[in-house]
Batch of 2 targets.
Target 1
Amino acid sequence: MDISFDEDMLGPDGADNRPAEPPNSLDLNGAHPQRKKLSAPEINLSLDQSEGSILSDDNLDTPDDLDINVDDLDTPDEADSLDFTGHGNELEWEEEQATKEDEPKEEAEPIPEYTAEEERQDARLWRTVVIGEQEHRIDMKSIEPYQKVISHGGYYGDGLNAIIVFAACFLPDSSQADYHYVMENLFLFVISTLELMVAEDYMIVYLNGATPRRKMPGLGWIKKCYQMIDRRLRKNLKSFIIVHPSWFIRTILAITRPFISSKFSSKIKYVNSLAELGELIPMEYVHIPESIIKYEDESSIKRYTCMRVDKNVPQSKS
């Protein structure tokens, strides 16, 4: 559809100047109609109160119904202002703080100094050992009453062939509450001490006399000791002598035979008295607990005269 635009659609008097008939063609070559420019009224944006300014009296006039009498307004008094929850809590908190500041403060007790002697004593409570290429810590305080379970009995033959004495009467009672904890630390103590005492070949003298059933180590503990012993110690062990063997210890050793080598089994010897033991090894430096001497006296066993009796060792209650 072709539409033709005229320059002005409306005349100055507002009459419609559009043709009576609609145009049937579009004038593409003619001039485009021009838009009229309307002039805006002048506005004074100055801040003075001159005529035309936005701060003039004409623009600031307010209707009469908006007049407010300040004297007629109700304002809260001081008592009402204290009823707010926030202000009340702040005042109470300030009063509590002031009360706490006025109260005398208790002086904290000074921390006692850790002396060099106490530090050395504390270092003795724990011992770090290496067994089987693994580092272990021993609670020396827990095994203090049982450290005499293992001792050095001198040497035999030529060279540094050590005699290691294991007195079962010094083992802890299995009825005590921390028995397993003590036996775990005692096990580490025995193995680590054995490695320190042995330089070359050695033998173990196991004193089984005067030891009640509740103090004898269990099968698991004996098996663990054997498995944890270093290969060098197994190889250098020449003899394992059991003094005053009971039927219980014989049964234990019979049960453990499948777990130990035939070479180790051949090293086990049973001795029924200290006199018989003295025929096998020198007894001058072997510490014999007095409870074992008493055990032999009560059992009418002939005592070997050339042996050392440790009278300072407390007797074990059977």
Target 2
Amino acid sequence: VSETCEVKEQCGISEQGEFEDGRFWNKDLEFCDLKENMTSPTITSVTPAELQRTTARTLQIFIDNFPSLPGKFLCAFSALGKVLKTIATRTSTGVSCTTPRKDFLPLIPSGKSYFTSKLSVKAENGPDFEATNFTFFDCNTYSSCTTCVSSVFPCDWCVDGHRCTHDTAENCRNDILVTGINRIGPSIRSGPAFCPRVNATTGGSPEILVSSGLQKIIQVKVDHIAQFIIQTRFVCQFNIEGRVTSVNAQLLRDTIYCDEMEFTYSSRAPNITATFSIIWGQSKPLDNPDNIHVLIYRCKEMVNNCGMCLSLDEKYQCGWCQVSETCEVTEQCGISDHKSWLNPDQTCPT
């Protein structure tokens, strides 16, 4: 009798119930822990722990100290301003419930590959018992092999299909596959080192230097070029000040040679960066993980006197053109007489 009175006093109501383990709950399904050894429910794990956004699965939610409560249970997924509920079924270890329909789920924010939702288990007309985080990801948001297979999610890359996927059986049939570093299971090609790609230039620098106004053949090393890629047409694409220029390219052994083209820019800046990509199969760029790019520069915009000109970094190959009294590369000094062009080992006239 005294314990019943204590229940009513601590729960503050006239209606209460008792769990099988001796804990009590009130009409609002709130816990009234009357004994020191009573503990609230705790979600210990969820299987699977994350899910491709475009799919639906039944989740197994493992809950410690889950009460034997009458009525129905729900799973609630809260993310990006939406709360979506699905019916939960009690199991011997907690509950199971399906994820919401994919057309009801929020869209993944632009520039992201996932969103994290709050996953809570609750009684149909009561508060949350316990909550945890649950992540929805989308392999389709990755546009390159390197980013795809380096993902923290189980994503794989279809080489010929040129797409990232969570389901290779469905989307990579008869294709060469590069598996993600977080894909469980054996693989002969796993991780970004197996992606078809452009490699850094000799010396490890991702920078290709060209003096503005000069014609140049750009050449780069490539790796993991499958036979079906070799049989396609290659194109080098340069984006200079927002203007895209494409030239044909040839693959000889492990090197791509872009057809000769003139590199120039219109601004008065000392240099500009032109992005660079190699396209195969009409629209599929090779990966460029080292961000190899072309730096187009003008010696005369960097400095305006002979002393400073001859002190510039030797990588620019600038020298002092005595005819025009400007800093130039030798090809732009105007005449073939090299005596009129001073290199950095020479001395400026007094």
